[in-house]
Structure formats: C-alpha cells, structure tokens
Amino acid sequence: MKTTTIVTIMRIIVGILFIAHGVAKFQMGLGNTAGWFGSIGIPEFMAYVVAFLELIGGIALVVGLLTRYFAIGFILLLLGAILMVKLPIGLLGNAQMAGYELDLALLAIVGYFAIANERGYGVDQLLFKNRDQN
C-alpha cells in the first residue's frame, strides 16, 4: 500500500474522531460545555473555540483541506487538554474520566500531519501540488 493511501486513511480516521468530539459538545449544549470548562478553571469561551475547531477541523481533515494548519490547531488543543485537564488524572484515567492516552496518540498523529510533506489524497493535494513538487 502506498504511503499516500495510508496517510489518507489516518487523516480520515482522526478527522472522524474530532468530528465526533465536536458533535458531542454541540449535543450536550455549548452552554453546558462552557459551564463545565468554567468549573475546571478554563475560560468558558474556550468551549466554543474547542467545539468549532473539533467540528470544522475534523471535517477539514476528512476532506484533506488545510491539513497542516488544522493539525497545528489540534496540537495546541491536545496539549491544553493534557496539561490542564487530564494530567492529574493519569495516563489511563480513573472511574470518572478517561486518561490522556487517546490524547497522546492523537497528538503523535496530528504532529505528523503538521510536519510531514505527505498529506495524502484530498483538497490539499490539488491546491498545493505544484509547491510540493519543488
């Protein structure tokens, strides 16, 4: 299997995961999500930023649009989630909350998307084909 195909599959799977997390925040109600953010010491407006980044960025990853830029946004989001929320809970979490193992795996994958020249099949390939060939 070609690297381009594997990167495309990885990008789509990660995009779907972020879409699912974004949709979950909208289904809970952004006000409720903002309230939870506030209860753990994170400014409430960040709930809106996170929800929209997860949803829009996830869709962008699925179609392969501006992959590098959304990957950088996801790196910041995941670092924030790990450092501000999940680190005290531990790698595997506890009975109330998951640990940061998934966040760490996603961080490694989006880190690859941020630095690699291989973006896989998608809109980026069409937009930046000539630039990547140089």
Automatic annotation (TrEMBL):
The keyword Nuclease does not apply. Signal peptide: none annotated. Keywords: Cell membrane, Membrane, Transmembrane, Transmembrane helix. It is a multi-pass membrane protein. The chain crosses the membrane at residues 6-24, 45-63, 69-85, 97-115. It is found in: Cell membrane. It comes from the Bacteria. Belongs to the DoxX family. PANTHER family: INNER MEMBRANE PROTEIN YPHA-RELATED, OXIDOREDUCTASE CATD-RELATED. This is DoxX family protein. It comes from Paenibacillus agricola.
